[in-house]
Each structure stands twice: as C-alpha cells, then as structure tokens.
TrEMBL record:
Family classification: Belongs to the diphosphomevalonate decarboxylase family.
UniProt KW Ribosomal protein keyword: no
One Gene Ontology CC term in the entry: cytosol
PANTHER family: DIPHOSPHOMEVALONATE DECARBOXYLASE
Span of domain Diphosphomevalonate decarboxylase-like N-terminal: 7-164
Catalytic EC class: lyase
Protein name from the UniProt record: diphosphomevalonate decarboxylase
GO molecular function terms noted in the UniProt entry: ATP binding; diphosphomevalonate decarboxylase activity
Pfam families per the UniProt record, alphabetical: MDD_C, MVD-like_N
Residue ranges of domain Mvd1 C-terminal in the record: 178-306
Record's keyword terms, sorted: ATP-binding, Lipid biosynthesis, Lipid metabolism, Lyase, Nucleotide-binding
GO term, biological process aspect, one: isopentenyl diphosphate biosynthetic process, mevalonate pathway
The EC number(s) this enzyme carries: 4.1.1.33
C-alpha cells in the first residue's frame, strides 16, 4: 500500500483570509490562484500493519511532533474513508524553503492527499480530492488543479461544497510570476493563527468578507479575457486588503520585512516607467511579481538589483497534481 505523488504550489491572486469553521477548515471567502510551475512537493507514502506510529520525514529530517501530529490527524480522515487503520511512513520533499510564505502547506497537503488516497485504493474525483486536501490546509485544495484555479467557500456545514476547480488550464494564458526570496526564515505567525486573530479582532473583518464576491467575479473575467492589466490591478488590491486586515488585527500582524517594502516600491516604479508588473505577498516576507513573458527579464533584473533579494524564482502556470508511482 504505497504511492508517490507530486503537487505544485500555488499563489492566490484573490486572497483567502479567514475561516467560517475551524474544525473542518472551511474558508470564510472564496479565492483565486495560479498554480506554479517551479515549486513543488513530492510525497511518498506507505501504509503497513507493521508500523506502530505515523512517521513523517520532511526534506530528509524527522518532522517535529506538531507537524507529525497535524499530518496524522489528516491521514485519520482518509483512513476512516478507506476503513483501514494502518500507520504510515511519509517522505516528503519540497524543492523550495519550507514555511516562509511559499505555500509549502499547499503543495504538501495536496501531494499527501493524492498519494495517500492512491495508496489506500480510494477511488475519488478531483473534487473529492480537493475537499480532502482542504482539511489539511485551505490553500492545498487549490493545488489539486493546475493553471488558473478558483476555490469556493461553499455554504454547507459539512464542507462538501468547499473545493477548488479550474477556471482555465495552464495553456490558456502564458503569464509569469517571479518570486523574490527576501528571507529563508520560518514565518513568526502561521496563517491559521493569523486568520483567527483577524476574525476576532480586526474591525475591518466583515468589510473584507462583504467585498470578496466582487473581487472574485472581476478576477474570473480578467482571466477568461486574458486582460493582464486587470489581473494585475486586482491582485495587488486583494493582497493589500488582506495585509490591511492582518495589520488591523490586535496585536497587528506584520508579515513584511524592509526588503519586501523596497520591492513593492520598485514594482510600482517599474510600472510608472511603462512595464506592466504587479506584486502580491502572502503570509511571509517574499515578494511575488506578476508580468508578461516579454517583460520577465526586465522584472528579474529589477528584483536582482534590490539589496536583500537572495534569489529569484520564475514561474509559469503550473500543472495538475499527479501520481508519479503507485
Ligand atoms: C492564500 N494564504 O489565499 C492566503 C493568503 C496566505 C495568505 O492560504 O490555515 O496554509 O492551513 O487553511 O492555506 C495560507 O494559509 O492556511 C494562505 P490554513 P493556509 O493563499
């Protein structure tokens, strides 16, 4: 009972921030993301009656009890579905720094969902896989499909309608997303804790929820129309609103470092000089820049010229999560 899967990370263009149910990890808002070509997780899992406990090995090191516990609780959901109680050994590799705002939980839980479902001989639709991945991590639901993806917040109490599906496949539109790495350190406050703090303390939380529908509708259309300026403007707008929510929590949550802020200004300077480039930032200090293929070199040079940017990773729209071995 063994399988190996690869899932690519994703970056939200219209952000998810806030949960309507913590136990089932149901998002309070829908979101729209781009699956990334260059960042992925490969996960191999084996279930066996011989294993006494679940064992998680992350990038060749035994994971912390917290990480192993979260993975174990997630596997319990799949074990229950399959009617199998075997423990598992999980080996997972990211080709990028873990937990620094590069959505390792997105690709990680998506790859784990796919590999574990196959190893347990569960026959599931892409929708069912996305519903399951969500229970590991909200953004993981969006890493089951490739290309341009929409996550539905859903309305049901059981979460069966809170899943992600493609808006358009990777070949629909060649846009680029460059990631400027400003720090390799783990983030200080995780997304789940940050979202809960915003929900319970930010005076702007309800306004954020109320405005999301319009942003999702506009972004869906921008993607279908291949309107890059619109996609970029909406991405920057949603990103800054999400960070305004984090900043207005009590105590305020600040995910940026100085380099992040320098880079935001540099992207806007480039735009003033005529190059359509737009930033987005997640729950960490990395800067992500959206641009068209013909402007990729210019954007890369701009990012590399900012002191404190250690590395720039270029992405195109990435593929669906898939089984590598079974
Ligand atoms: C997003 N983020 O839409 C938002 C924007 C980060 C900033 O989803 O608690 O790891 O596991 O559901 O998915 C990152 O949070 O959070 C995230 P949980 P997740 O990409």
């Amino acid at each position: 009972m063994r399988a190996k899967a690869r899932a690519h990370s994703n970056i939200a263009l219209i952000k998810y921030w806030g949960k309507r149910d913590e136990r089932l990890n149901l998002p309070a808002v829908g979101s729209i993301s781009l699956t990334l070509s260059a960042l992925w997780t490969e996960t191999e899992i084996e279930f066996s009656p011989q294993f006494q406990t679940d064992q998680l090995i992350l990038n060749d090191k035994t994971a912390s009890p917290e990480e192993t516990g979260r993975t174990s609780r997630f596997l319990d959901v799949l074990r229950k579905l399959a009617g199998i109680n075997h423990k598992a050994v999980i080996q997972s590799h990211n080709n990028f720094p873990t937990a620094a705002g590069l959505a390792s939980s997105a690709s990680g839980f998506a790859a784990l969902t796919l590999a574990a479902a196959r190893a347990l001989h569960l026959s599931l639709s892409r929708k069912e896989l996305s519903v399951l991945a969500r229970q590991g991590s909200g953004s993981a639901a969006r890493s089951i499909p490739g290309g341009f993806v929409e996550m539905h917040a859903g309305q049901s109490a059981d979460g069966s309608d809170a899943f992600a599906e493609p808006i358009a496949p990777p070949a629909h539109w060649d846009i680029r997303l460059l990631i400027g790495i400003t720090s390799g350190a783990a983030k200080k406050i995780g997304s789940t804790a940050g979202m809960n703090l915003s929900k319970t303390t930010s005076p702007y939380y309800q306004a954020w929820i109320d405005a999301q529908h319009a942003d999702l509708t506009a972004m869906r259309q921008a993607i279908l129309d291949r309107d890059f300026e619109r996609l970029g403007e909406l991405s920057e707008y949603s990103c800054l609103k999400m960070h305004a929510l984090a900043l207005s929590s009590n105590p305020g949550i600040l995910y940026w470092n100085g380099v992040t802020v320098e880079a935001m200004h540099a992207v806007r300077d480039l735009r003033r000089r005529g190059t359509p480039a737009y930033f987005t930032i997640d729950a960490g200090p990395q800067i992500k820049v959206l641009c068209l293929p013909e402007d990729e070199n210019e954007v890369r040079e701009m990012l590399e010229s900012i002191p404190g940017i250690r590395e720039v990773v270029s992405n195109k729209p990435g593929p669906d999560a898939r089984i590598l071995e079974a």
